Amino acid sequence: MRTKLLHDTEEDIALAAALLQKGEIVAFPTETVYGLGADARQEDAVHAIFAAKGRPADNPLIVHIASADMLPEIAADVPEIAWKLAQVFFPGPLTMVLPKRPDIPYVTSGGLDTVGIRMPSHPTANALLKAAGCPVAAPSANRSGRPSPTTAAHVMADMDGRIAAVLDGGACEGGVESTVICFDDPETIHILRPGLVSAEMLAPYAGKVYVDRAVYSQLSPEAKVASPGMKYRHYAPHAKILPVDAPDFASFSAWVTTHAQTGDYVLLFDSDPVIENIPTMRYGDDGRTQAHLLFRRFRELDEAGAHTVYVRMPEQTGTSLSVYNRLMRAAGFEVITL
Ligand code: AMP
Ligand code: MG
């Protein structure tokens, strides 16, 4: 199969929409990362997503919709709190897990009776969803286990020859995948995966907000998890990622200077001073910038042929929690604590 590279024009969006309607797979930009889309109601098309990614069948896909009005077309029940959150956070990087309607096939929901739903804010994604006129199931457009793609070139690197088309909409602003939540009860928000919609931002709209423990620590493969995606190794470049939890820059610098071998890199904050003689990349100072750059840096580190990458630890609050979580998962939760 030749993968078409489409552009952000009305004509190409119409072409991409027609491909989706025909049951083909099209990668498209969103405000988080690039997604690998197929009509969520066409079983064969959704199966083809799993095949293209090499994704385990029990890892559910998120269904993307063009407007909040479509929630009842996908979810069997939309509680009051979900409507309230949709009003505030749609369109945007928030996925809500709700009971699925019977016409959403189990292949889309990874065999679950629930389905993750979100409305992306990227204008190209929105135009594509409107033109296609169907709900679009889309995981991140990387090969399973690899860092999520934030440019069309990243998608091509992983998917060329495996899908019908890539719609190029430039670099994604957000850089990490959406926040995934479910509701334990009508007042409780349970964060399954942190994203740029933080616990702090959700707090005013719920009695209680809490973060699943799988965000902070490795689960055993047998563990029963609320979100199947959390048990898989994820987001990893070929280089070995090793976060170093140091009380300050001086101790980080001293430790890596004595431990780094030829071919190793450091991934620093922008405000960190220079470390002599160790190849360096940087990924910003605040959560939003770090989210925007993390996966891009992972791919650049692979292109540079990095062996081990010693990484400065992001914060664990606000939007930074999403960066911390992706970094820890890329590292398989192995960390150097000084
Ligand atoms: P990706 O599409 O690669 O960003 O992954 C989607 C994420 O959403 C995975 O981590 C899934 O586990 C999670 N997710 C999607 N649907 C559900 C669901 N019905 N229940 C729990 N988690 C879900
Ligand atoms: Mg993914």
Write up this protein.
The protein has 338 residues and is an alpha/beta fold. The chain folds into 2 domains: 4-215, DHBP synthase (Alpha-Beta Complex), CATH 3.90.870.10; 240-337, Rossmann fold (3-Layer(aba) Sandwich), CATH 3.40.50. Helix content is 29%, strand content 21%. The chain is built from 10 helices and 16 strands. It has helices spanning 10-21, 43-53, 71-74, 80-89, 123-132, 152-159, 199-202, 249-259, 287-303, 320-330, and strands spanning 4-7, 26-28, 35-39, 62-64, 94-99, 114-118, 136-138, 165-168, 179-185, 188-193, 208-211, 240-245, 265-268, 280-282, 308-312, 336-337. It has an 11-stranded mixed sheet, with helices on both faces. A hairpin with a 2-residue loop joins β9 and β10 (188-193). α1 (10-21) packs across α5 (123-132) and α9 (287-303) packs parallel to α10 (320-330). The longest helix has 17 residues, at 287-303. The N and C termini lie far apart (50 Å). The relative contact order is 0.15. The model has no long low-confidence stretch (mean pLDDT 95).
